[in-house]
Amino acid sequence: MINQETIQRIMDATRIEEVIGEFVSLKKRGGNHIGCCPFHNEKTPSFYVSPGKGIYKCFGCGKAGNAVGFLMDYEHYTYPEALRYLANKYNIEIEEERMTDEQRERQSERDGLFHVSEFAQKYFADLLHHDETGVAVGLSYFHQRGLSDDIINTFGLGYCLDEWSNFTDHARKNGYSDSVLEKTGLTVFRDEGGAYDRFRGRVMFPVYSISGRVIGFCGRVLTSGKQTAKYINSPDSDIYDKGHTLYGIYQARNAISRADKCYLVEGNVDVVSMHQSGVCNTVASCGTSLTSDQIRLIKRYTRNVTVLYDGDAAGIKATLRAVDLLFAEEMHVRMVLFPDQEDPDSYAQKYGSTQLQTYLKEHEEGFVAYKKRTLNLGDNEILDPIRKTEVLTDMVRSIALVQNPIEQQEYIRETASMLRMREDVLMQTLAKAIADMKRQAWKEEQREQARAQAAQSNPTDGQPGGAVPPPLEPTDDELDALYPTPEAATAPAQVLPDLRPAETQERKIVTLLINYGNAEVPQEGVDEKGNPTTFTCTVAQAIVAEIAGDELTFDNPVYQQIFDLYHQAIDNHQALPDANLFVTSDDTLLRNTALELMINKYNISKLWLERKSISIPTPEHNLRTDMEESILTFKQKKLDRQLENNSYQIRECKNDDDMLILIAERENMLSLRKAICERLHRVIV
After folding, report:
1. Which single residue of 25, 294, 327, 353 could bond 277 by disulfide (Cβ 3.0 to 4.6 Å)?
2. Would you say 676 and 639 are in contact if contact means Cβ atoms under 8 Å apart?
3. How would you classify the pairing of strands 246-247 and 282-285?
4. pLDDT tens for residues 129-169?
5. Is the distance from CB of 148 to CB of 273 less than 8 angstroms?
6. What is the DSSP letter of 96?
7. How far apart, in whole angstroms, are the C-alpha atoms of residue 13 and residue 281?
8. What is the pTM of this model?
9. Please, are residues 157 and 203 in contact by the beta-carbon 8 Å criterion?
């Protein structure tokens, strides 16, 4: 277990904008950094990172926390895994306390998979550069493909000798168990005994996680043979899942973020070749067809994807399938069609990096133009009603997946022009396609529920479970409610305090407590002899004394909860609550409310102030005034409510004695309200 002293060193060294910036494209705005939230789909940035406070907050979905919490939510790390990630990033040596046997075994097994994968990568790379066969076979192959030693080293490429168990024997001698060798897929163990290297005789492409750890491999055979697969990949394991991983994402992520665009290619060699040609924002799927999870990985850095699959029939088919998946994930999609028999790697080798980059810029096109080009639609085909219907159905099916209504309308306009049809006819066809998709989604859900019920129905008396009648198919309106259209879809609603007018000052007071509780302000009072004097106290002490001293409470329960934390800390002479206390709170509403109040979304440009020669005091300069005005206004609001209640009681009162008491109370409250208004320099009506 990681001890507290080490945890504190990790947290002190962590810069949250650097950590989150590896996963989210952030732009500096004043003292904060902003970007599109990675936890929900949005087009206008509402995700704020505060380096000064070490926290992040999304004002769209309400997600909030510190760097550790972000890694746990986004990367699905455990708490220790997140700390280890940060310790590794900031070169902090971890001092551990004793773990239980179960914890040690679980951690050791996962670490073992990482260690043997990294060991294998180094061994294969060493063979490629220093073994006679590795140089003659593996390195010469990469050089023939036009790859330089620098790019080979950047991607950690290697070679596995064409021997039965060379790597396995070497790993065993270095202390790696058969268990980790089998689980990573580096070694294949026969049922009848014996073991052999999975990747023997292949050049090796290590697959890196987004944080730069080796998690798997792809091996390419260098001999031709019908019985031998050209590429083989590591099997899925506890550290590697092909459907959740992109080849080259570690090397490409910063370039993708800077360019706000990702090039998606088919093969590993294409990725490496594109990087060498200066197009470093390039990735590929890892030995599998493109998946939604892989798209979401790209989405962390950009929504703009250009697909560069091969120009043959298989490549075009794969491109159109990828387009549908990208549309469904709200990505902005472009395509480039390479000449027949060409791919990014072959084109770069034939024409060079400059010509490749020029070709990409000049031949990038949208979905409709790409579809028209690949279909080779001539006038006769457009006029043929059967062919026209086939094309229309195919086009609309893809356009129905587009989430942005403006993009959807533009695709309809282009398709109508291409097929020489009226836009309103296509819109009707599109509406039907969307309705069909929703109905199909509903049916899929019903089938899943039926399968789940069947799995749970396992009667012990030998009698079959009672049949559940299928639900009635929903109406179109009910389907719209179940599956909102893009216009109706919104970010997950966050539950935040209801800001009624009377609560505005409560919010201001709690904001002062959270952001400036430890700041010192001068206060006026009297000494032991009754003479006027000035003393210094913290903002938190002054606020708590004024509000608790008058036995006032907050209407908003979350604000009251935060105030109570400060009240208790002061009474018990403890340190005031800080960001860490709120970040680690199990109370989601408390945590999100507090972190929202810690981040100021609005900043005045310093450059603008300098140009206008304007001097605006900072909040710290007006701290005493803000605090006093907030407290006095808070008290005035309370008095106004008490006066309203008093007026009601006077109207309803039937007893003369009680009436006199109520009138006296009213006079006292009016006198107190007058004094407050005078201190606030407000006109009394």
Report:
1. 353
2. yes
3. antiparallel
4. 999 999 999 999 999 999 999 999 999 999 999 999 999 99
5. no
6. B
7. 29
8. 0.61
9. yes
